[in-house]
Specification:
alpha+beta; Aminopeptidase; 2 domains; nine-stranded mixed β-sheet; 16 helices; 24% strand
Amino acid sequence: MSGQSSTRHHAEGLSSLGPTALKQAQWHWFDKPSDVPWQAWAAFPGSSAYLDRRYLTAMSGHGKVQCRLGMIKADNGPWLGGILMQAVQSESRSPADHMDVSIGVRIATAIMQPGGRPFRFRTLVAGQGLGSGQHTFLWQKDIPSSQQVHWMEQAFDQCAKHWGIRVWMAKDFGPERDAELAPHWSRRWARATFDPVMEVPLDPNWTSTDQWQAALRTKARTKVRSILARSADLDVTRIVDKAELDRLGPDLIALYDQVYGRASIVMGGLEARDFGRLSTELGNDFTVLTFREKGRLVGFQCGMHHEESGTIEAYYVGFESDINKERALYQRMLFEFISWGISLGARRVVMGRTALEIKSTLGAFPVELSTFVHIKLPLAMPFLRWMIRKSPPHPFKPRRAWLADWSDRWQEEGYRIK
């Protein structure tokens, strides 16, 4: 059955279902990629790089993040939707460095993390533990928001029993989806917001970074020229050979740990073999760039391209701190993600939740995301709600990078400009 005819079949099947049939729909769980009915999964609208069969297959052997795919089906009817559930080893390290926490939260954190040691716990995640953005579920069109939330809560109940995990997170939901879903969550959940994800919109008609720079204000263009000048003599190489990626894996992880190790909350983490597995499955839709100074490896970046949504996902980077300061290496990596996106006719580059101001100097806009959290322990939820209330994200003021006409265009496309 082709994707187009499969989609039509599901849509026709859905229109004939009544409320009772939706309520009686059942989850089916798949722990191995070979068991997933991928043709039905691919027919759901709204996919992303993190919900792509190739990515999910590549990461199925991951040791730090266990994945289950759930698909819900009407009795003797069509598939209605799918969800990504993960069991993730999480660490809380230094939330005070990334949020405006109160004195009370600092004291509570010190109690949970004596001597500054990380507080470790397993987390049941609906969505993506190794990335940010709306990668939680896929539904057939016209599934009511109340039904979506009801099914998600069913998925948590079933997977919590499977894995025995008491800390739950449903992440991430952008402003529009959050507004639709928020009224329907049960009282056991608490809504939280963290730093926004940063996105650079692109014109898919651009064919070079010169056109992107021409859309920026003079100060932003000067910034780009400085970044390129400071890193001009670095050797930048794209690595595509799986054997070479496997050989480099430990060195890339060592650089990655220098960056990811400073995060306030760590969920899962990369492993040395991830690069080769992702390259094998994604092919040209996965990139690894290495940066060398006089032959010595000093940094790397990797990312994914999802053609259907026109998106570049800036996956992970790693670099030596001293080289980064001297060579503006991180900013050079952001430039390379934008350049790669333009070469593929992408519509946006998703850059993640860190270094917000730096990313805004290259034209990134903040996209607010909400997460719903539950802890299945006595008295835990009042404490969690207090922690959330007393720990808002650090405020930041985005830089104005785009010329006025382009700012107007991006605002019309839904980005928050002011």
